[in-house]
């Protein structure tokens, strides 16, 4: 855990590496036209090799990330000795339904039911070749049925008792409410959270700090706001100001954004969504910003507006 001077470690997220289309800005230019299964498998393995060689030991996947678990599983099978050094996180509660098409009308389908959990857990085991260390309900919101389904919660408690750490990921403007609700459940099975936190959308910070104090493992996703806080992002007002602050701090915009997340005192790991080794190197060069805290706070957008804009981003 970072103390504000020591940065939290970086992990590799496979959301943009396991399927042909995703919502990251600049992904078209980084990946090129070939999004075939063999091409994406090669890309995922290349990035996993790069991450391993640079000391990254936390890998994030999900059932809905296309073939991400399968790609990770085949990479692990090629050198099983690596498994014990890794912390592997995956998620259930969404199906990938994009049929490996760039132009799919729908790419993923959400369902937080006991039946979904019982179907997807064996699928995760088969794809990875074993159990992940952390297994999360994908994109829990305050109205999720998972918070009130007694049978599902019992099944998750049983999984936690087996040694797999059970948690939630969050999305949307009410991330903090969802996290507080999951944490305050009687005999809550949850002790891990993966949440969006970045310079444009830091609203979950207080709830993440509370989870940290309660002993939860805290993972930050989307620290570069799906590519908006990179050189590929549209330089609208707040992004342009973030770029100016990054330049004044002597960092690239993506490193500045990643470093701001890694410097939070409540975070245990921050995910890189890099799809090329050069992007990963830039993320790894991050350091905690020396920028005045009030200037960073002024970059925040209104959460509802942030999430509305995210929800209509194109899959490319």
Question: Which tags fit this structure?
Answer:
alpha/beta, NAD(P)_OxRdtase_dom_sf, TIM Barrel, single chain, eight-stranded parallel β-barrel, two-stranded antiparallel ribbon
Describe the structure.
- The protein starts with 9 loop residues before the first strand and ends in a 5-residue tail after the last helix.
- The chain is an alpha/beta fold and 316 residues long.
- The chain has helices at residues 27-31, 37-53, 68-78, 114-128, 150-161, 175-183, 205-213, 237-248, 253-262, 277-284, 293-297, 303-311; strands at residues 10-13, 58-60, 87-92, 94-96, 108-110, 134-140, 165-170, 192-196, 217-221, 269-272.
- α7 (205-213) links the parallel β8 and β9 (217-221).
- The strands form two sheets. An eight-stranded parallel beta barrel has the order 1-2-3-6-7-8-9-10, surrounded by seven helices.
- It is globular and about 50 Å long.
- α2 (37-53) crosses α3, α3 (68-78) packs parallel to α4 (114-128) and α8 (237-248) crosses α9 (253-262).
- It has one domain (10-311): TIM Barrel, CATH 3.20.20.
- This is Aldo/keto reductase.
Task: Give a summary of the structure in a few sentences.
This protein is α/β, with parallel strands linked by helices. Helices cover 39% and strands 15% of the residues.
| Ends apart, CA distance between termini | 35 Å
Largest sheet: 8 strands, parallel, barrel
Number of strands: 10
Could you tell me the strand content as a percent range?
A: 5-15%
Using only C-alpha atoms, the radius of gyration works out to: 18 Å
Give the domain tally.
1
* CATH class value: Alpha Beta
